[in-house]
C-alpha cells in the first residue's frame, strides 16, 4: 500500500509549550487508521499541526507526495485533506446547508453544478441532513451536528478525512449509525483517520491504530492484535 500521509519526527506545541515529541506515523491510502490516547495525549494538537493551524518546530509532513509542513490550512484543504474538528464546530446561526456549502470554499471548481452534486452526495450519506437542510445547525442534536461536521468536510472532496472525537458525548446507537455511514464513505475511496478517546470504538472500526501518550507515539499496530492484547489495553489504553 502506498502512503497517503507521512509524518516524521514531528515536534509542535503552543508557544514555548512543547506538546508533540518526535511523532512519526503514516496513513496508507485506502485504510482506516485510528489514533487513540487519553485526554491530553496530544491527538488534537497533532491534527492541528497536520492541517496547518499550528506550525511544527521540527519534522516533516508529506501528503499525497507533497511537503505540507508550514502550508496554510486553506491550501491543505485544497489538496484534499480535511477534518471534522473536535467539538464539531458547526456554525450554529447558519442553516445546515449553509454549513455544508462552507466546506466547498477551497474547491477549485465552485460552479453550482459541482456544489449541488456535492450536496446530493452528502445528503445521500446523511438523509437526516437533507430533512433538516434549512434548520439552524445550533438546533441539531449532537449526533446530527457530527453529521453536519462530517458532511461539511466531505464537501471539500477529501482524499483523507480526519475526524476528531467522533463518539464523544454521543449515545452508542448514534455512534453505530455514524460508523455505518463512515463505512460507506470509506468504500467510496476515502481514506479515514479516526481520532478517539474511546478505545473500543476506535479499534473495532479501524485497520490499524496508533497509540499516543504524553505527546509521543508509543505504539503502532494492526487493530485486531491490539484489541486482543490485554496487557496493551491495560497499560496504554486504561481499558
Ligand atoms: N491552545 C493551547 N495552548 C496551550 N496548551 C494547549 C492548548 N491546547 C492543548 N494544549 C495542551 O496540549 C496537550 C495536549 O492536548 P490535546 O492535543 O488537546 O490532547 P488530546 O486531543 O489528546 O486530548 C495538553 O497538555 C493540553 O493542555
Ligand atoms: Mg482532542
Helix content: 25-40%
Secondary-structure element pattern, one letter each = EEEHEEHEHHHHEHEHEEHH
Number of helices: 10
Q: According to CATH, what is the topology of the domain at 1-80 and 192-239?
A: Rossmann fold
Question: What is the architecture of the domain at 1-80 and 192-239 at the second tier of CATH?
Answer: 3-Layer(aba) Sandwich
Based on Cα principal axes, name the global outline: globular
Brief description of this entry?
The protein has about 240 residues and is α/β, with parallel strands linked by helices. The longest helix is centred in the C-terminal third of the chain and has 16 residues, at about 170-185. The chain is built from 10 helices and 10 strands.
Describe the structure.
This protein has 239 residues and is an alpha/beta fold. It has a domain at 1-80 and 192-239: Rossmann fold (3-Layer(aba) Sandwich). The chain is 38% helix and 27% strand. The chain has ten helices and ten strands. It has helices at 43-50, 73-79, 96-102, 112-125, 127-131, 142-154, 172-187, 199-205, 223-227, 230-237, and strands at 3-14, 17-28, 32-36, 58-63, 66-67, 81-84, 160-164, 191-196, 208-213, 216-222. Strands 6-7-8-3-9-10 form a six-stranded mixed sheet, with helices on both faces. A four-stranded antiparallel sheet has the order 2-1-4-5, covered by helices on one side. A hairpin with a 2-residue loop joins strand 1 and strand 2. The protein is globular. The two termini are 31 Å apart. The model has no long low-confidence stretch (mean pLDDT 93). The site of adenosine-5'-diphosphate (ADP) has 11 residues, from strand 2 and helix 1. Magnesium ion (MG) binds at residues 43-44, 86, 164-165.
